[in-house]
Amino acid sequence: MLRINREIRDRIVAHARRDHPDEACGIVAGPIGSDRPERMVEMANAERSPTFYRFDSKEQLRVWREMDDRDEEPVVIYHSHTATEAYPSRTDVSYASEPGAHYVLVSTRDAETAEFRSYRIVDGEVTEEPVEVVEFTGEPAR
Predict the structure, then answer these.
(1) Which pTM value belongs to this model?
(2) Which of 19, 27, 92, 135 is the S-S candidate for 74 at Cβ 3.0 to 4.6 Å?
C-alpha cells in the first residue's frame, strides 16, 4: 500500500495538469528503507511528448546524487498519461528499474477528475496497490 500525504498527492496532480498535453514526470524521495514519500521533485520530460516520458539524463544524475547525499531513495516514481487510463504501458513496464518504488500514474484525460493509481513493477510484473491519502505522514511535506 502507498501512504501519501495529501499535499504531495495534490502537487503531483497539479504538475500533471500543468504539463498537459505533455506527460509530466518526477519522483518523491524518502529516507532509505522507510517507504515514506516526503520530498517531491518535479522533473522535466526530456521527450516533451503527450505519449511518452523520459527523465533528462543530466537532471536524473543530479537528483539521484542529491538523494544519495541525503540518505534518500526514490519512494515514488510518477508520471501522467494524457489520453489513457492511469495504467502502466508496455514501455513504462520495460523502463521500471526501481523494484522498491511505488509507480504512480495520473491520468489527465478528463479535465474534471484526476485518476491517481499506484503500482509495484518488479521483473515486468505489474501489481496495482491501494493508495491511502493521509493528512500527515510524520514528516512535513517539502
Answers:
(1) 0.93
(2) 27
Q: Which CATH number fits domain 2-134: 3.40.140.10, 2.60.40.420, 3.40.50.2000, 3.40.50.2300?
A: 3.40.140.10
**Mean of per-residue pLDDT scores for the chain:** 94
Segments making up each domain of the chain, as ranges: 2-134
CA 34 to CA 92: how far, in whole Å? 24
Q: Does residue 142 or residue 91 have the better pLDDT?
A: 91
**In Å, how far are 11, 25, 105 from 85, measured between CA atoms?**
19, 16, 9
Contact (Cβ atoms closer than 8 angstroms) between residue 117 and residue 126: no
